[in-house]
Amino acid sequence: MKRTGPSNSTTRELINNIKILSNKEKSKLWQRIAYELERPTRKRCEVNLYKINKYIREGEIALIPGKVLSLGELDKKITVAALNFSELAREKINNSGKAISIQELAKQNPKGKKVRILC
Questions:
Q1: Contacts of 34 (CB under 8 A, 6+ apart)
Q2: In 1-119, which ranges are E strands?
Q3: Distance separating alpha carbons of residues 11 and 17, to the nearest angstrom
Q4: Is 70 a residue whose pLDDT tops 80?
Q5: How far apart are the first and last CA of the chain?
Q6: What kind of fold does domain 9-117 have according to CATH?
Q7: Fewest beta carbons within 10 Å, which of 27, 38, 111, 118?
């Protein structure tokens, strides 16, 4: 059976852009993110805020190749990049840090420095 990938055109475009970036920058981080985003929707990561707060240090960037959910609180000033956010999670993150999309992170940090992937 042939893998077809996501049917959402914006997600497909994001995956292609990230693959191009990973080849250009020789970055394993972006290669891994493209692989994670190609997975079926039912197998994508869903991460709650308490897990982000537990594993990410001050000044790092959390990269979630899935959805961020709102259970828990953030007490650190961090940047969170994800494919999707719940409304309440985006509010909570923006109160103490910054919530951005994966596309924005790829433009800001093409080398992938100080980025930690959570799944």
A1: 15, 18, 19, 22
A2: 45-48, 61-69, 79-85, 98-101, 115-117
A3: 10
A4: yes
A5: 26
A6: Ribosomal Protein L15; Chain: K; domain 2 (3.100.10)
A7: 111
